[in-house]
Amino acid sequence: MQEVQQLKEPYLLIGKSVTRTDAREKVTGAAVYTYDMHLPNMIFGKIKRSTHAHAEIIGIDTSRAMKLKGVRAIITGKDLPNIRRGILVKDTPVLAVDRVRYVGDPVVAVAADTAEIAEEALELIDVEYRDLPAIFEAEEAMKKNPVVVIHPDLKSYSAKYAGADAGIPNLHAYFKVRKGDFDAACEKCDLVVENTFQTNIVQHFQLEPVVSIAKVEPNGTITVWDSTQVPFMLRNELSEALQIPPEKINVIVPHVGGGYGGKLLSVIAPITAALAIHSRRPVKLALTRKEVFDCSCVRQPFAITVKDGVMKDGRIQARKVTSYISGGAYSGGMGVNEAKTSICGISHYKTDNFWYDAFRVYTNRVPGGPYRGFGAMQVNWAIESQMDILAERLGMDPIEFRLKNLLNEGDRNVIGEMTESTEHKALLLKAKEMVSWGSETAPQGPWRFGKGISIGHKWSFAPTASSAVVKYSFGGTLNVQASAVDMGTGALTVLGQIAGEVMKMPIEKIRVSMPDTNITPFSDGAFSTRQTYNDGNAVRLATLDLKKQIVERAAPILRADPLDLDVRNGTVYIKRNPDKLIPIDDLFVKGVSRGGAFAPVRDFIGAATWYQTAGALRPEDGQCTTDRACAFYDVVAASAEVAVNIETGQTKVLRLCLAVDPGTVINPMLLEGQVQGAAFMAFSNTLFEELVFENGVAVNPELADYKIAGAKDAPEITVSWRGTPFPDGPFGAKGIGEGPMLPTTGAITNAIYSAVRVRPHDLPITAEKILMKLASESC
Amino acid sequence: MSELSKKYPINLNVNGMEYSVEVKPSESLNDVLRENLGLTGTKRGCDYGGCGSCTIIVNGKACYSCMYPAIRASGKTITTIEGLEQNGQLDPIQEAFVAKGGFQCAFCTPGFVMSTKALLSDNPNPTDNEIKEAIVGNICRCTGYTKILESIRYAILLQKEGPKKVQKTVTSGTIKIDFGNP
């Protein structure tokens, strides 16, 4: 272990586990979430959903429901603008028109005085369907002549999509990488190994269900309160869906009870807003837990084939990976992007010959969409399983084998990006040390013990932007206006620490706003590990702008050059003579009426926009047009120790160790919380969770049948981090929200193999699968 | 009017205050707390006792308020998350969750705090297994439980020794670079 390096600057707030600014309201129950809100005159929405996996709508009869007392609005797809929305492929109607494509597809929406009346009204609505053939598996959907085409008009949808000319009618997103000549390189290899892997459908399970409230204001504008991760994106999606200009829509985000990617899509807000428009009443629409499970958004399953050619000395000479993504009935907003983003789950090893193909196809199931790790987790697990398989075939230690192939600083990765400020090897070795690699636990009764290791990196997407406005108020408070969504991450606290650090003010004096698109400045929102870095940079720059104004105003009073001045704790002082200072409050003019004080000429307001550029990946070969296709890489290595019961197949994860590289750590306690939480989520996804569909119907969309790991299952999770500042980050920070999702599953899988020599190739790794494998191995 | 939609008057003692409300037999205590009394600190995540975010204390026992018929609560003593703070002072359990970062999105937090409150009222010195048993009906999707367990252990210490005697431990004070390059 190296000696602890001190940072050059003594920081006031950066690197400190300051208490979350929302702590008190959250532990007292005072924090208000959208789910808790109630407006005067508010009524309640409910959705009539398709009971058919794929069918034409022959007719909808709402006449009986309209007569029910207390029903205030009923809308069908035909009552709405004839618009399909989507971020890349515009394929998703607000309510189904003519055709339903999954069990749960919204068909009719009702608003009534109470949720019970709305529910009753749904029962009185008759929808007549004519069944169409349905597709449930990616394999069938990939056919050039499938049993059915789920979006026959796909080619006429407004957005272009890659792979349109492949002749696969259900294909709607495709991404490829072509580097070197895979086949030629493979022929020269000592060993060629091919394996396939299948990931599970899991649900985000945010504790606060998906919920939206919409109100038409007297001036005709619409206010929406929503548990969203992306207020500005939601505003634009609402605008598109309802054909109302975005400036006439205001999105306000109260506290958000968890997101994990599942609150990126505007699953219900357009329906809520349409109900509000039709009823002229504020409408609240909250999904039931069952609807959240099977009608909102799921992590889409990947079928992944990995074929590798390696040399005896352990060099990977050729690698070909193919992903078939069963995307569900629609493109899932940004879910369609996973075909491309998944590349960052497998780009951490170098090889001269690398081919990747990712196909996303329509299937008749609830749409897949963003889920913490965004496609990278799925392929990373396949690759990290394959790495252990290869190491064993080569007779090499899995860590040595990885070290031989991991990227070094200055290497070009498989998509041509320059490897900068990442420390893959150091992190892998740290994860090795944390789990006491090499020391073995002897069997105890039926229990066998094993350790496993894995590594991955998740990029944070770019180009992207965030803005911030920071105001210094008389009395010594700093008001930070940004549009970061704190869905639990501690983003608002982190932004407060960044602003406070620039002004050298205590966190108690800093207020960070929550998003309100009419008032707070632009941000792309909370996804892709982006807020600490992007919103953080915007806040840092805006606060520097503010500081410059304050210092310039103080300079003539202190008779000093602005460059010789600095700020601290509500004062401006001369750097070489810190006793000579002026309180910032003295720069205000006091005693005007009884209103306190004002800043003459111009209020003390700083503003800035952070715009992160990035190169594009060329469609023909997936190679980056510049040195970077993203904002940064978040590298995480994981190690696990497990115990497996050979009589029952049960796996207990005893320890999870995560070595992470988040750049400068703004708040160690929040960092640990993010890493532990993501690793635990991956652990629960790996061993317990699967939303099972039969003929398009989810058979276990309730907690009694869908197991989520609890306190008794919880392994000890330890976190270690490097704090090497990242040059472009605010005070050197990157982000950490998703990275630990990637390697955790691989580490557990590899540990199970080391314990009992069986390796399930499909998730989740249940006791049954282990037992069956153990039984078949012993035959 | 059918039996089911008829409303019946009940008296509730919630956080030391008396309330008279009229409820339908189908209404849960969760409905009454959140909708009639405006006490939205008690959450609702599933409506069938699956997630624990609605946990409250009725006559000393932790209960899922979403599964508790309001009509059965008549005359009983109910404590919700809003009832823990006394004279502006947080309950030691709340203090501990703040100090140890035992929450993130915090939609589950009132439930965890109330389960812990019921546990520590009965058993001020529980073992780790007893702690886990007490929160087995509460799901947290954010934290991975590590910091929740740390918070509860710290709450036990705070209750035992009082807030002033316990050194506030900060996870890490400064940025550390605690291992070298290979």
Helices and strands of chain A: which structural class?
alpha+beta
N to C succession of SSEs of chain B:
EEHEEEHHHH
Spans of chain A with pLDDT under 50 lasting ≥5 residues? 1-7
By CATH, the superfamily of the largest domain in chain A comes out as Aldehyde oxidase/xanthine dehydrogenase, molybdopterin binding domain
Shape summary of chain A:
globular
Description:
The complex is a heterodimer of chains A (779) and B (182). Chain A has 779 residues and is an alpha+beta fold. Chain A has 3 domains: 34-133 and 207-258 and 263-296, Aldehyde oxidase/xanthine dehydrogenase, a/b hammerhead (Aldehyde Oxidoreductase, domain 3), CATH 3.90.1170; 298-462 and 615-778, Aldehyde oxidase/xanthine dehydrogenase, molybdopterin binding domain (Aldehyde Oxidoreductase, domain 4), CATH 3.30.365; 464-612, Aldehyde Oxidoreductase, domain 4 (2-Layer Sandwich). In chain A, 24% of the residues lie in helices and 27% in strands. In chain A, strand 11 and strand 12 form a beta hairpin. The longest helix of chain A has 28 residues, at 531-558. Chain A is globular and about 90 Å long. Chain A starts with 22 loop residues before the first helix and ends with a helix. In chain A, 60% of the residues are buried. In chain B, helix 2 (92-100) crosses helix 5. By secondary structure, chain B is α+β, with helices and mostly antiparallel strands. A 5-stranded mixed sheet of chain B has the order 2-1-5-3-4, with helices on both faces. Chain B folds into 2 domains: 8-83, Beta-grasp domain (Ubiquitin-like (UB roll), Roll); 92-161, DNA polymerase, domain 1, CATH 1.10.150.
Features:
heterodimer, A: 779 residues, alpha+beta, Aldehyde Oxidoreductase, domain 3, Aldehyde Oxidoreductase, domain 4, 3 domains, 34 strands, globular, disordered N terminus, B: 182 residues, Ubiquitin-like (UB roll), DNA polymerase, domain 1, five-stranded mixed sheet, 5 helices, 5 strands, 30% helix, disordered C terminus
